[in-house]
Amino acid sequence: MDEAGVANRAAQLPPEVIAPGFRPEFAAVKWGAALGDSYHDTMLMDWTVFQAGIDAEAEGYSAVVIDTVSDSGLRALRSRLSIPVVGPGECAFHAAMMLGKKFAVLTMWDEWFPLYEKTLTEYGFWPRCSGLRSIRTRPDLSELLEGKEEVIFAKLKAEAEAAMAEDGADVIVLGSTTMHQSAHWLSQNLPIPVINPGLIAYKQAELLVQLGLSHSKKAFPAPQVGNDEGIRRGSA
Question: Is 89-196 the same fold as 3-87+199-233?
Fold first, then answer.
């Protein structure tokens, strides 16, 4: 991902939402998956996110936020690190369950469904999920939704309304942090809450840091024999 791509991701956190004393930094993985549209890509996403995050604690960061709703590498990073490691999928689903009874995951295309199937199964959240919905549109992970608002936003709204009417959804979770540009518009044009996963995850990380909390090392034990150097070398 080039600098423009990183800037598009960083735009999901406008300055007014960042608490005093915090300075989020966005960093792209050095190599890996292109679209996240296959189990091949899922494996690459887990590996490259894990590889990119293992040095965060040693480099002085207070927390790691994974910038994908697939929560790629989440549990492995929690095993390796003591600082909080936060995933947008887990945070968004929890927030949705606090705000309603049934949430729908609204995403760009069906090819991303396995990403949510994985996390919803791991977290045991299926009973509260009304279903997965997409607008069947190939994502542009460089420009995101810029320049396509008039068409894409209307498609997302129509699919969200179908999730409400047909599936019983009373909260919408956007299925990708790359969809953040649609969050405010959808919130203004739908009668139910719309969860912007990247923003929720970032604010959760702030909260954990402020409260001095992190994940349980009993739940996510550190490896007795690590291999950081091998992990760092394991790139294309």
Answer: yes
Cα atoms found within 13 Å of the Cα of residue 212, Cβ hemisphere only: 0
Unique residue bearing structure tokens 């947008």: 88
Q: Helix crossing, 113-123 with 39-53: angle to 10°?
A: 60
| Token pair listed for 63 | 């927390």
Class of domain 89-196: alpha beta
- 3-87+199-233 is classed in which CATH architecture? 3-Layer(aba) Sandwich (3.40)
What is the residue-level pLDDT of the chain in tens, covering all 236 positions?
A: 778 888 888 999 999 999 999 999 999 898 889 899 999 999 999 999 999 999 999 999 999 999 999 999 999 999 999 999 999 999 999 999 999 999 999 999 999 999 999 999 999 999 999 999 999 999 987 778 887 888 899 999 999 999 999 999 999 999 999 999 999 999 999 999 999 999 999 999 999 999 999 999 999 999 999 888 888 886 54
Distance CA 78, CA 137 (A): 33
For residues 224 and 233, what is the distance between their CA atoms, to the nearest angstrom? Answer: 20
Between strands 64-65 and 85-86, the pairing is parallel
Cα separation, 145 vs 202, in Å, equals 21
